[in-house]
Amino acid sequence: MTSIKNAPRTATTIKVRSKPEYMISRSRDPYHELMLRLFKDETTAMRGRRFLGIVEERMREGNPLRTNEWESLIRELGISRSAFYAMRNKLLGAGLISIRGGEYRLSGAFSKDLVDMARWWWTAVLGNSLENL
To answer: Tens of pLDDT along the chain (133 residues)?
Structure first.
């Protein structure tokens, strides 16, 4: 049996909305809207946002959040160890965070993947020129 701590970091699912009124950039709170597309329920979305906020704040302070600080994190977020690692693994799988040198860091992998998908769809499927994107 795999322990939670050693669970694989897999890809994740994101909800895509096709109507213009659901565009993240039109939302009053784009960050929250993004979390709702990753997590099934509101409570987990809020915790995911809070966790990302902690990672971002600690990076800015020059004191990155260490992976071995998980116990204080679960107390601060008010969740179980398994819920924390499930949330963390979803954020890792989505490419919003990464772990380097035992530290959590915000990651640009999510953005790069979306840009790559947009370019592929625009050129390969729609047959448009990349210059017109």
So the answer is: 455 556 566 677 888 888 887 788 888 888 889 999 999 899 999 999 999 999 999 999 999 999 999 999 999 999 999 999 999 999 999 999 999 999 999 999 999 999 999 999 999 999 999 998 8
Q: What token pair was written down for 12?
A: 């994740």
DSSP alpha helices (H): ranges in the chain?
30-38, 42-61, 70-77, 81-94, 109-120
Length of the chain, please?
Answer: 133
Nearest to 50 by CA among 81, 91, 11, 14: 91
